[in-house]
Amino acid sequence: MIQQKDLKIRKSDIVLTVSIVAICVGLAIIPFFFSRDGSSVSIYVDGKLFAEKNISENSVTDVDGMMTVVIENGKVYAQNSVCPDGVCEHSLPITKSGDSIICLPNKIMIKISGEGETDAISG
Fold it and tell me: How far is 102 from 92, CA to CA, in rounded Å?
């Protein structure tokens, strides 16, 4: 049988818990401080570059009738996807360098890049 004194919360338990929570919060907010604004939007279909747009210019791009990519006020989002789940349409708009929206059924990737940045697809 467990004795009552074994179930007491010690000072070290509280310190450990607070430390773990602080580390988790710190790791979660780091990307917000080090992410850069993007300058261009690249649209890839089946791994090949379909179009590249300036993020500061509002535009609407039809991607082979499978999806519409909208750039509006520095935000990029997907509309009118023909994939069954439409997960890409429900994604939050992307704005920062390195952000992406991926539609697996249509094999479409929308990625924001910053100035002088090389992405994994182009090398």
Answer: 12
User: What distance lies between CA 58 and its chain's CA centroid?
Assistant: 20
pLDDT exceeds 60 at position 2: no
Tokens of 103: 């539609």
Specify the 3-state DSSP secondary structure of 64.
Answer: coil
53: number of Cβ within 10 Å? 17
Does the reported pTM lie above 0.70?
no
CB 110 within 8 A of CB 119: no
Residue linked to tokens 């992410």: 35
The two structure tokens encoding residue 35: 């992410």
How far is residue 57's CA from residue 42's CA, in Å, rounded to a whole number?
A: 13
